[in-house]
Amino acid sequence: MADMGNGSGMKRLLTGAGMVAALTATMAGILPGADMAVAAPGKPTPYWASLSHDEARMRVGPSLDYPSNWIYRRRDLPVKVVQVLGLWRKVEDPDGAQGWMHVRLLSDTPTAIVKADVAQLHESASDNTRTLFRAERGVVGRLADCSGGWCAFDVKGQRGYVKASELWGATDK
User: Fold this and answer.
1) Using an 8 Å Cβ cutoff, are 82 and 121 in contact?
2) In the chain, N or C terminus with fewer CB closer than 10 Å?
3) Residue pair 115/168 in contact by the 8 Å Cβ criterion
4) What local confidence, expressed as pLDDT, does residue 171 receive?
């Protein structure tokens, strides 16, 4: 009888271990129903991302157990992903600070930040066209297309073309 009790206890232990393994596999994106893009971005590092929330914490390590070293309050801020570890991304901000962010805080939306003192937004991708707007250093906008050294740049509905050399972000596509 004692052996039968141990056997059923062992069976419960193995069943519990199987459930933990299945849950872990689902969370890691191995089983159907899990977000495969989160588990394996399919992109070689480094690659560009942007902040998807109005507030995002950069941590000193890849876990919620690590303290925050920066709190960003700027949706669409471009970051460069330099390392991937599970659901965590080691990112670099426009000032060169590096740390870890959870993947849910990031988006694939291509954005850039003005690094020139003042960047002129032109009517088309040429210096010889009319200047529509000017954007100061630190202005963040979304990119639609970058080619020939120019990027289509949208700052809250104000659209124009900016020299790629005046931006930091997803301009190397």
Assistant:
1) no
2) N
3) yes
4) 82
pLDDT in tens, 92-151: 999 999 999 999 999 999 999 999 999 999 999 999 999 999 999 999 999 998 999 999
The pTM of the full predicted model, rounded to 2 decimals, is 0.74
Q: Which helix (H) or strand (E) holds 97?
A: none
Question: Which residue, chain included where needed, has tokens 């992903």?
Answer: 81
Alpha helices in the chain (DSSP H): 2-28, 36-39
What is the spatial distance between Cα 115 and Cα 119, in angstroms, rounded to a whole number?
8
Residues across the chain: 173
Q: Is 123 helix (H, G, I), strand (E, B) or coil?
A: coil
Structure tokens given for 134: 């000017």
Return the C-alpha torsion angle 14, 19, 24, 29, nearest 10.
Answer: 130
Which residue shows structure tokens 């419960």? 12
The residue type of 115 is: K
What is the per-residue DSSP string for 35-80? Answer: -HHHH----PSSEEEEE-SSSEEEESSSSTTSPEEEEE--TT-EEE
Separation CA 80–CA 91 (nearest Å): 5
